[in-house]
Design a protein that fits this description.
Layout (H helix, E strand, L loop, with lengths): L28 H12 L8 E6 L6 H21 L7 E7 L8 H7 L2 E5 L1
Parallel strand pairs: 1-2
Antiparallel strand pairs: 1-3
Helix pairs in contact: 1-2
Length: 118
Amino acid sequence: MRACNVRFDNVDRAPKFDFADADLLPEDRTLLQQVAQCVTTGPLKHRSLRLAGRADPRGGLEYNMTLGDHRADTVRRYLGGLGVDTKRIAETSRGELDATGTDETGWRQDRRVDIALQ
């Protein structure tokens, strides 16, 4: 992603979500537009993406896995609307499996979708 001047090696840059929600936040749209441009017309044209939806540890395991799926799907649909071929986007959910937060600040970091090149 450095070829496109987009960095995802920091969870602060990954799209975040409100508690128990899978709606994309307005502040993440600019970043996703950069990603879409990069893989549709930019230096990484035609590359595939992998999305991993995540949740904070509150809620049951099955609920959080489903919520992670919904979050990844929200990002996939948004990228698709920007011209990214959704057949080139793989989705998975990590749910709360890798959550590290212990308070609202940390939980906000846990509620995200990681984007990586495939």
